[in-house]
Amino acid sequence: MNRRNFFRLSGMASIALMAKTAEASHGPRPGAPEFWGVLVDTTRCIGCRSCEVACGEENGMFVPDVENDGALETLRTTDETQWTVVNHFETSKGDVFVKRQCMHCWQPACTAACLTKAMEKTELGPVIWHENRCMGCRFCMVSCPFDVPKFEYDSWNPKIQKCIMCWHRTSVGDKPACVESCPTDALIFGHKRDLMEIARMRIYNHPEKYVHKIYGEHEVGGTGWLYLSAVPFEEIGFRMDLGTTPYPEYTKDFLYGVPLVLLGFPALLAGMNLMTRPENDEESGVHGE
Amino acid sequence: METYSYVNIFETKGLEYILLICFMVMMVLLFRYMRAGMRDKS
Amino acid sequence: MARVADERQSLFSFFKDQLRPRGKLITPFNVISIPVIIAGVIILFFRFTQGLGATTNLSQQNPWGIWIGFDVVTGVAFAGGAYVLTFAVYVMRMDKFHPIIRATVLNGFLAYVFYAGALVFDLGRPWHVINPVIGNAFGYNSVLFLVAWHFMLYMTAEFVEFSPVITEWLGLKKARRVANSLTLAAVILGISLSTLHQSGLGALFLMAKPKIHPLWYSEFIPIFFFVSSIFAGISMVIFESTISHRVFKMQMGPGSHERLNEIIIGLARGATIAMFVYYFFKALIFIHDDQWALIKGFWGAWYLTEVLGFVLVPMVLFAYGSRHKAVGIIKIAAVLTLIGVLLNRLNISVIAFNWNVADKYIPHWMEIVVTLTVVFSEIWIFRWIVNRMPVMREPGALGSPNRKRELQSLN
Questions:
Q1: C148 → closest Cβ in A115, A277, A286
Q2: Domain limits at A214?
Q3: Domain count, chain B
Q4: Per-residue model confidence (pLDDT) at position A5
Q5: Do C280 and B19 touch (CB under 8 A)?
Q6: In this prediction, does ipTM exceed 0.85?
């Protein structure tokens, strides 16, 4: 083999190899858009709850009476009437307000749990729910590490309620209503790549102001919503024990095993039946007669 | 999570193998025990 | 023409006759079960008109209660006897277990129809239950998708396995031959499906990692569920056949008592081995996950109660009972095992689920009534079938590992 041929061959082999690895990995589709996300800087939030009002109005949900309901006194979770809530925490660094809603995980547990594809991770990032498919099994609620999907227990025709990141707006590139309503720019809408840079820059420029962690960077495999905080995240109601593994990975091995079992078992069992069969049995195997 | 020190994820392997040996010994004993009952019959 | 009409007439009167109740109406079981079933139906009416909140204590934190945790997850484990015994009889040709195969398969089939069917009560939007089947929304990325499909396919397989009995009941000889010929295929498919959906029920909880107490959560939950379904199924067969033997005594021939004891001793040996393996699996996971620190306090004690009190103890009793041919001890072991499996399934799905959350779920009395309704209805149907079809009457097989005997019993 001469030099030229050798290079040609090895070149071809490496191209074939590259093609193979590209095929084998479950990478993103080339040219797919990057996910939208929101950066929440809790040091900027003043607890005005404009986002709660905007969310209710935009999505036809409950609109809280922010002036008089005294809702900040108690620790709330989102529920079937409100997709987002702001909580108040008294911490070592004073009052902190935290807006909570669906985290719009990179690889959501809820969509992996859904057997009717009613929960959908859209190509642009927001996780949305399809009423015409959902059978109300609530497996998404069992699976969600943040307990986000909520169920209308008091209706004969219940819906799953959760933040859809104002899909009717974000699907055409507009900001979600809560981001638009925020008077202090505590919320920033954008691509995670850009949001991470902003967040890192803020920590770098004010190392004493923030804890050096961006919640949502790696949690449960990365989330669409990112949080900056002045105090450790445990103090403002975030779970730190969720791990960095995307939740669908927990069921991946089992689901891998399914076709293996269905391939192997019937043949093995039929084989065992043949092996245990006496030589002059009148039965003629699987087909009986 | 924000620690940068070594974690040995195979620390318990030795104990697991000891359990495995126990299992095999117990398995033999259990079999002998139950087989003895079947011999009584005949 | 007249003959056809005549045949139709006789078929009609046959069914009319078969539908008529047999036996006494006032029995302790009837007196208890009839009011419960009526109450359950009324409750279900309110559940479907006013939502799940009206009849259950489910909440946003606790989306699954005993309708899933007991009816589906535990009920299906208890129904595992059908696949274990069909494996023994049709694949391994253990002729010893023939006499109970019909009752066991019937029980397995009814358990799936009722307990898995009870899932529909728990669905918020049950009219969409057909979605993952008709293909407008195949969520094949979901463990529940797999479980749902397997339930349906398995019910079909169980029905095919049981169909020879139905054809005998109707006196259809040709159909019986066809049904017989399908048995082995249905058995093989049924066992494969069982392996997967028994473990699949465990896999449902894999993504609930942060919610289940670490002593119960493990990446091996599916394997635990599968192995425990073997001895849960066996224990249920022992339990059920003991009761059936008393209730339907007049249907069984002479010598059936000794034969049943022989069977129960054989089953106890199988249960011993399965529980032995399960127990060491548990120990292995305990060591691997380094859970020594968790064993303190309430949850540790509760865990030990389950694993020592209701796995190790019944295992020892099974071993002792099978060696000394003490059928009474085996029956006690079977009941303890059933309690143990019930505890295990409820721990994972309800009790140790959200163990660290203040808002604990305690089932509403109406949930319990509906659960009892499901159980009682199943027993009613079981009794109805046994009183009419040749389930217990002769120790016949379903299909035919032993064709000669089969044909003799037919003619």
A1: A115
A2: 32-246
A3: 1
A4: 59
A5: yes
A6: yes
